[in-house]
Structures are given as structure tokens and as C-alpha cells.
Amino acid sequence: xxxxxxxxxxxxxxxxxxxxxxxxxxxxxxxxxxxxxxxxxxxxxxxxxxxxxxxxxxxxxxxxxxxxxxxxxxxxxxxxxxxxxxxxxxxxxxxxxxxxxxxxxxxxxxxxxxxxxxxxxxxxxxxxxxxxxxxxxxxxxxxxxxxxxxxxxxxxxxxx
Length: 160
Fold this sequence. Notes:
single chain
């Protein structure tokens, strides 16, 4: 059995999207996927917003959205939206968040998007994904995201 998973965007508070599709040689394709616009974990507390939940193994379409959120002043965002779908031999997930503000403005972004897809052909699986960060500002400095998995270290042991 071959399993592939696709993209994740991390900013300590995680804006995440994960997806996988699996198939066996003599088995029909089954699907697994989930879109979550905002996932956060700190001090043993976890939070997931605009989370589609897992895609049924038989496939289907899942959509969810949240107009806006503010979590104790630590994370706020608008227009959180996620979708996940699968049929035939492919599955895909998308998430989008607008006006992201983390840690009282330490990290902000105008738009955060993530897309992923996976497909199976016999015992061969393929996956792809991409993400987009527009208007990213960290500690008052504009950041141009020019490569995947960009990591920025800030004073006080904070990593973005």
C-alpha cells in the first residue's frame, strides 16, 4: 500500500492542511483528507477552526467556514475557509485565512492559502501542494516569502 501526504504551513500557531489518498493493488481507492484553516497548540491546549474533519473513506465533499475569530488576543483571523473532496482516484484540500494576527501583532499576514492534492493509479501515489502568504509582517518587518519552509528566529526563543 502506498501513502502520500501533502502540504503544511507552520507559523508556531499552525495554519494547516493535510491530505492523503491510498490505494492497494487489488483494492478500490480509499480517501483521507482534511482541511483546517487555523490550528493552534500552546500550553497543552489545542484549537482547530474551520476544520472539515476527516474525509470519509468512500470520498465526498466537505466544506466549512468561520466568519472571524479572536482567541484570547493571541490569534485572530477573518474569513477562515476549508474544503476537502475526493472521488475516483484523487483527493484535494484547500484552506484560506484573511487578516491573520498572531501574538498581538508580532506576526500578521493579509492572506494565507494552502492547496494540496493526491492521486492514485494502481499502486502508485502522487501528491502535490502549494501555499501562498501575502503581506507577511514579522516583528514589524515585511517578509517576502521566496522559498518553502521559511523559518525566522526572533529574540526570546520565538521561531516563526
